[in-house]
Specification:
The chain folds into four domains: 95 residues, no CATH class; 128 residues, no CATH class; 65 residues, Orthogonal Bundle (Arc Repressor Mutant, subunit A); 45 residues. Helix 6 runs parallel beside helix 8. It starts with 6 loop residues before the first helix and ends in a 12-residue tail after the last helix. By secondary structure, it is an all-alpha fold.
Length: 427
C-alpha cells in the first residue's frame, strides 16, 4: 500500500495511517508490520514511532538495531529519528557532482519540509529564482529533479496556510515552464509528495484564494483549458461555484475532498482551516448580496448544522467588523453611522493612555525616591566625614599643646646645643 515510499517519508506516512480513525484495522496492522521489517532491513529502529509500529503490527520479541552508517544512509537514519538538522548537515558534507546538484538539492528540500523549516525553504526558493537554470546544458534527470523540487516548494505554501501564495507560485511556475505538468502526469520512482496531493493542494488553494467575482475569468485561463484532465476537479468546482450551486459544491468538498485530505499526511495538516475558510467565504457571499438571511435557510441550502452556522457567522461578523446582527434565526444588515463606533474606541484609547500614564507616573515617583534617598545618604556621609575630620584636628592640637607644656630644660639645651651650627655664640 505504501511500499513505493522510502526512508523517513515512508515511516511518517505509515504513522499517519495508523493514527487515522478511518483507516481499516487490517491495513494498519499490515502497514505497521511492513514498516517494522523495513526498519530492521536498513539496520535502524530508533524511530520515535517504533513502539506504536510494533504494538500495531502485533509482533512480539522484535529485535531492535542501530547499525553504523555513513553518507546518505546516515542522513536517512537521522531523518527517521527526527534529527532533521543533523540529516541536512550530513548531506551538505557530501561531495556532490555538479551534474547531480538538483537531485541533491531535492533531498535537502524534502528534509526541510519534514522539519517544517519554511524559512529555509524561502531562502532556497529565493536562490533558485535568482539563478535561473539553463535547461539546455542539464541532464534530463537533473531537469526532472529541479521541477520536482519547485513543485515541493509550491506545495510548502499550502502546508503553512499560504493558499494565495501556493496558487500564485504554481501558475507563475507554469508560465515559465509549461513542461512542469509532465511531472504531474508521470509516475514518480521515489515520491515524496504525490502528484495527486500536489494537484489537490493547488485545487484547494485556488478555490480559496480567487474571489468569487473572478472565478469565471480564471476558469478560461489557457492552462486550465489545455490541461483539463489534470485540472478536472478544479474545473468542476469552479463551475459549481460560478453557478452558486453551493450545496452540491460542499457535498463534493466535504465527502471526496475530505476523504482524500484526511488520508494524506500533508493535506490533512491544513484541511480543517481550509474547510472553515471556504464556509466563511460562502457565508460572506450571502451577506454581501442580501440585507437579511435566515440561518435555517443556509442550513438547508448548504447542508450544514444550524449550530455550526450560527457560531461561525457570529465569529465572522465580529472578526471582520461587518455591519450585520444575529437575532435568533435571522442575520440582518445593521447600517451604522461612520461615527457610531468612535466614542467606544476613544474611550478605550483613553483607558489605555491612562494606564500607560499611570505606569509612567509610578516609574517617575520611584526614580524620585531613589534620587532623594541618594541625596540624603550623601549628606549623611558628608556630615559624618566632617565630624571625623574636626575630631582629628582637635586631637592633634591637644597633643601639640600637651607636648609643649611639658618640655624640660634638657630638651631646650638639646635644641640650643653650642655645637649646632644654627646658633652663633657672641663675646
Amino acid at each position: 500500500m505504501l511500499k513505493h515510499f522510502h526512508g523517513a517519508t515512508y515511516i511518517e506516512r505509515v504513522h499517519h495511517l495508523i493514527l487515522n480513525e478511518n483507516s481499516p484495522q487490517d491495513s494498519k496492522q499490515q502497514c505497521a508490520t511492513d514498516a517494522v521489517s523495513y526498519l530492521q532491513d536498513i539496520g535502524f529502529t530508533k524511530s520515535p514511532y517504533w513502539d506504536i509500529l510494533v504494538s500495531t503490527s502485533g509482533m512480539h520479541n522484535v529485535k531492535e538495531c542501530e547499525e553504523q552508517a555513513v553518507g546518505e544512509a546516515l542522513a536517512i537514519q537521522k531523518a527517521i529519528a527526527h534529527k532533521y538538522t543533523e540529516a541536512i548537515s550530513t548531506l551538505e558534507a557530501l561531495n556532490v557532482s555538479p551534474l547531480k546538484y538538483y537531485e541533491y538539492l531535492e533531498k535537502i528540500v524534502r528534509l526541510l519540509v519534514l522539519a517544517k523549516n519554511y524559512k529555509g525553504l524561502e531562502e532556497l526558493d529565493y536562490r533558485l529564482n535568482a539563478l535561473p537554470a539553463n535547461y539546455d546544458s542539464m541532464r534530463p534527470e537533473e531537469i526532472q529533479a529541479l521541477r520536482r523540487l519547485k513543485l515541493i516548494i509550491c506545495s510548502s505554501f499550502y502546508l503553512r496556510g499560504g493558499y494565495f501564495s501556493c496558487c500564485k507560485s504554481f501558475f507563475k511556475l507554469l508560465d515559465s515552464d509549461a513542461d512542469v505538468l509532465r511531472i504531474l502526469s508521470e509516475e514518480q520512482p521515489d515520491p515524496f509528495i504525490t502528484n495527486g496531493e500536489v494537484i489537490l493542494m493547488i485545487t484547494i488553494s485556488t478555490i480559496l484564494a480567487i474571489p468569487f467575482d473572478n472565478y469565471d475569468d480564471f476558469l478560461h485561463l489557457q492552462h486550465l483549458e489545455e490541461h483539463k484532465q489534470i485540472f478536472s476537479r478544479l474545473i468542476d468546482c469552479l463551475k459549481l461555484l460560478i453557478n452558486t450551486s453551493f450545496g452540491r459544491f460542499l457535498d463534493l468538498w466535504n465527502e471526496e475532498f475530505d476523504k482524500q485530505c484526511k488520508q494524506s499526511m500533508f493535506l490533512s495538516q491544513r484541511w480543517s482551516s481550509a474547510k472553515y475558510m471556504m464556509r466563511c467565504k460562502i457565508y460572506f457571499f450571502y451577506l454581501r448580496i442580501s440585507n437579511k438571511v435566515e440561518i435555517s435557510y443556509l442550513s438547508r441550502t448548504l447542508h450544514i448544522e444550524v449550530e455550526l452556522i450560527e457560531r461561525e457567522i457570529e465569529h465572522l461578523i465580529k472578526s471582520a467588523h461587518l455591519n450585520f446582527e444575529l437575532n435568533g434565526d435571522l442575520v440582518t444588515y445593521s447600517p451604522k453611522h461612520y461615527l457610531q463606533d468612535v466614542a467606544p474606541r476613544l474611550k478605550k484609547n483613553q483607558e489605555l493612555l491612562e494606564k500607560k500614564l499611570e505606569v509612567r507616573r509610578l516609574r517617575n515617583q520611584q526614580l524620585k525616591d531613589v534620587v532623594q534617598e541618594m541625596i540624603v545618604k550623601n549628606n549623611e556621609q558628608r556630615v559624618e566625614k566632617d565630624s571625623t575630620t574636626n575630631e582629628s584636628l582637635i586631637y592633634h592640637a591637644s597633643r601639640y599643646r600637651s607636648s609643649t607644656d611639658n618640655m624640660d630644660l634638657d630638651e631646650i639645651n638639646d635644641i640650643s646645643d653650642p655645637e649646632s651650627g644654627t646658633f652663633e655664640i657672641g663675646n
